[in-house]
Design brief:
- The structure is a single chain.
- By secondary structure, the chain is an alpha/beta fold.
- It has 2 domains: about 60 residues, no CATH class; about 130 residues, 2-Layer Sandwich (Nucleotidyltransferase, domain 5), CATH 3.30.420.10.
- It contains 8 helices and 5 strands.
- A 5-stranded mixed β-sheet has the order 3-2-1-4-5, with helices on both faces.
Length: about 200
């Protein structure tokens, strides 16, 4: 389900429109309104019932392309390894625009477990946004190589998490995995550590 469909579903439940925008993954009400106007402009003037499909309107394609192929940066953090842990994911459009972010406290976990949880969180975020193709970018070389089949998974707990990630990835037409440096993953790293900071301060 893409963000606009999710927005309409939430809106039908009777909640406030601005709240529905945020819950559907839009950053602002104005962003949501722009996408709705874009979608409305693409509807054929004669309606849909009984119409012979014509060529796809260019602006409809541009609206849909925004979330069909996403780049998702993910990260996991653990203070103690094992210790208090968190995961984070940030989705970007093909043009580099930040679309949505998610983070979660994980309780006690190792760093590698947290990295896998970040991966799973990122895949679910991409599904939530209606993506069909995803490139996962993360600074854990171990997880990237294990997901690409280049490294064997010898730890049973990591094996369970890898299988959960594969199930989440099966939703998409294509999922790519790319190892990036920590410097190229600062926003996701910062978000994961903010969760730990908040938990430590509570």
């Amino acid at each position: 389900m893409n963000r606009l469909k999710l927005f309409m579903t939430i809106l039908d439940s009777g909640v406030d429109a601005r709240k529905a925008c945020i819950e559907a993954g839009f950053r602002t009400f104005d962003e949501c309104r722009e996408k709705l106007l874009c979608l409305a402009d693409s509807i054929p003037r004669g309606g849909f019932d009984g119409d012979t499909p014509g060529p796809e309107p260019a602006n409809e394609k541009s609206c849909r392309d925004e979330t069909e192929s996403l780049s998702v940066h993910t990260d996991g953090a653990s203070r103690g390894n094992p210790g208090p842990a968190s995961a984070a994911a940030i989705a970007y459009s093909p043009g580099g625009e930040m679309l949505a972010a998610r983070s979660a406290a994980l309780g006690k976990a190792t760093n590698n477990e947290a990295e896998y949880r970040g991966l799973i969180l990122g895949l679910r975020l991409a599904e939530h946004l209606g993506a069909r193709r995803v490139t996962i970018r993360m600074d854990s070389e171990l997880v990237v190589r294990q997901m690409k089949g280049e490294y064997k998974i010898r730890n049973s707990r990591l094996g369970e998490l890898a299988e959960e990630a594969r199930r989440a990835a099966s939703f998409f037409e294509r999922v790519g995995y790319e190892h990036v440096s920590r410097e190229q993953n600062l926003d996701a790293d910062r978000l994961a550590n903010e969760v730990l900071d908040d938990a430590a301060g509570s």
